[in-house]
Write a structure and sequence with these properties.
Two copies of one chain form a homodimer. Chain A is of the alpha/beta class. Helices cover 35% and strands 12% of the residues of chain A. Chain A is built from 13 helices and eleven strands. The radius of gyration of chain A is 20 Å and the shape is globular.
Chain lengths: 390, 390
């Protein structure tokens, strides 16, 4: 009997929309004018930051709306249900959805902090990163420490600042770092570079897994999209419907995963862990089989580890999650039953809210009880060091 | 009892290396000097064409070599086994491998003719395209019309020339067109454009499927590679090992497939067919489930067909193939048993030569006889209108 009452669902991928005071309440006084603040422009709420105006306050915040009304992002806070930006209201939305605990990614900063990475004023950007982390840990998660899981972003443009901030948030109780799935398109060194080793060391020491959310590197997959530099909150004007990119976003994480599997970083940092957020899991058996096939043939002459089989590395260093992935669930043992988690993706369009639990029960209908427990709860609690309170 | 003696294997993805006279024997006399010809340069055979020198005569032609010696492309014809470039010798290599019939993609032109697409002299390029097609049909395939399947490339830079050449090769008996999997990175309109409709009309009328070979659009997947414009025959000097790109090449075909599924072209041309060459099949169930999931939610407001379910379109318009894909074979009914074919990829590094038949028997060990017949032979013969001779 799958998904019974005693199974708590821990979602490893949800999203919050920042309220207007997140940065204004936290950055030094002299920076407040340039720091993110909400303006009223022709009846719309817009973010003003670092000299730019960003019309989208709640990118893809569609929870509670009819799909016929999707496609227009909310232009005022009142266009969203309060659970998008109010952590107390969110708890009630989670109750409705049957979700016990949630890991909430940023909105305005980008899932991996790309907004601050691209900003001109780096002194301000660093304060903005810290402010988001403090907001998330001290305000959002403090609302209910048993149900909200602390996450942090980093000043990705400077490795020393990354290390310092990672240490700071680890000490504050952060359970995971949201890092760009695609560093190279952001102008950063690839996962093959030793550039990141000091950060990996901190995360490994602190047992803080790295969450790679698809799209967090501001890279949009698909031939029609990948060449464009997306402007946050704006869809590029191209012929392909954006449904193509939405469908393909998990190919970002295929790329990130294979990069890491062949990077050597996993061997240098045995405790380093990566969570593939919103990537689905149905592609994993194919990518692992293909990785092993290529490794078997090309390890003889290429600069890749001769001894470390990619699929073994995956099952020691990666965690996948899904919303609605029947093929993945059916093939869960080819992925690794200890490495699969659930997500609800509230308030985005992939979410089944308010039916996440109901849909999970359907997808997991043929899965034995002990495996269901791992998938919906135990694996996430283990990865995030977020035990159930007695 | 799978893969019995009466099952002939028809491989839908192999490669030939052009011999030195392919173009010199065919282009008009005044063009011969600029047309592809082989030069002796410091003991190496190199292609000279359109003002450039191309050191690789047999890109990735490793058949018969120890993997420890891979990584260096052959520098002289004598470095390859003759079956790479001699169609009579190839038949013996196919006999060794247990392959009855083969579809052979180009080497020097690129899998989809990208070399001629990028050339400066377009008048010459058109003659070079025609010369390759004539060589392939009149010389290579004529060696044994029961075992070689005619394929053609197109002058992709001009839709009217594409249409004219497609009509010409259809009349000459070509069974498929090799077309770039990634038109956009080549500077061409995407699959969402009506630009290609006249070509799709010719192919649909002639029942000529379009073969999309991964990499045929000169697009190399992976964050470290996708931003680079690859130079044919040269690996870009970047930190990531090329094993990453080799592993990920099928993501190109995921992108191509999803582009086409959401393009509307399949609905406009019910007889249009696409073959995904060297893409593997293990990813298809995931991508179809994900495509349906996105279509179900986003068809209400996006410019996509409200009524045509992507997975239905796939099973009416696409054919996949594999070399060694246990996950795909296990999940073959989620793909479509009438839509899966085999490939041997001779003489490239993915190939199991001379054990293609032996390995196929292992992978198909648990597959019923009638399904094996479809996968190794009947589906390919149907797609390519290439019946077994009595």
């Amino acid at each position: 009997m799958p998904l019974q009452k005693h199974h708590q669902i821990v979602s490893v991928d949800d999203h919050l929309v920042e309220h207007p005071r997140v940065w204004q309440d936290r950055v030094p006084a002299r920076m407040k004018d340039a720091a993110p603040k909400i303006l009223e422009v022709n009846g719309a709420h817009q973010w003003s930051y670092d000299g730019g105006i960003y019309p989208t306050i709640g990118l893809n915040a569609v929870a509670g709306k009819d799909p016929k009304e999707w496609g227009m992002d909310p232009i005022r806070y009142e266009d969203m249900i309060p659970g998008c930006y109010d952590p107390a209201a969110r708890l009630k939305d989670m109750d409705l959805d049957g979700i016990e605990a949630a890991l909430c990614f940023p909105s305005f900063p980008g899932f991996g902090g790309g907004m601050f990475h691209r900003a001109n004023d780096k002194e301000l950007a660093l304060e903005c990163v810290k402010a988001w982390n403090d907001f998330h840990i001290d305000e959002w998660c403090a609302t209910d420490p048993a149900r909200y899981i602390p996450m942090s972003i980093l000043p990705t443009w400077d490795i020393d600042l990354c290390v310092a901030e990672a240490k700071r948030v680890a000490a504050k109780g952060s359970r995971t770092i949201s890092f760009p799935d695609a560093p190279v398109p952001l102008g950063l060194p690839s996962f093959h570079s030793r550039h990141w080793d000091p950060l990996w060391q901190v995360c490994a020491d602190a047992k803080m897994p790295i969450s790679l959310h698809f799209g967090s590197g501001a890279y949009v997959p698909g031939f029609s999209f990948s060449a464009f530099k997306p402007v946050p909150g704006q869809m590029p004007e191209i012929e392909a419907p954006f449904a193509v990119a939405i469908t393909l976003f998990s190919t970002n994480l295929m790329w990130s995963t294979v990069d890491l599997l062949f990077s050597g970083a996993l061997q240098r940092f045995p405790d380093l862990q990566f969570s593939l957020a919103e990537g689905g899991i149905g592609w994993i058996p194919y990518i692992l089989e293909r990785s092993d096939f290529v490794w078997e043939r090309h390890r003889w002459y290429q600069k890749i580890d001769f001894d470390a089989k990619p699929s073994d590395l995956f099952r020691e260093h990666f965690w996948g999650c899904f919303i609605d992935d029947e093929h993945g669930v059916k093939n869960r043992h080819q992925i690794g039953i200890d490495r699969i988690m659930l997500e609800s993706d509230f308030p985005h369009s992939d979410s089944n809210w308010p039916n996440s639990r109901k849909r999970a029960a359907e997808v997991l209908a043929d899965v034995p009880d002990d495996e269901v427990a791992k998938i919906v709860e135990l694996n996430a609690r283990k990865m995030l060091r977020f035990p159930r309170l007695a």
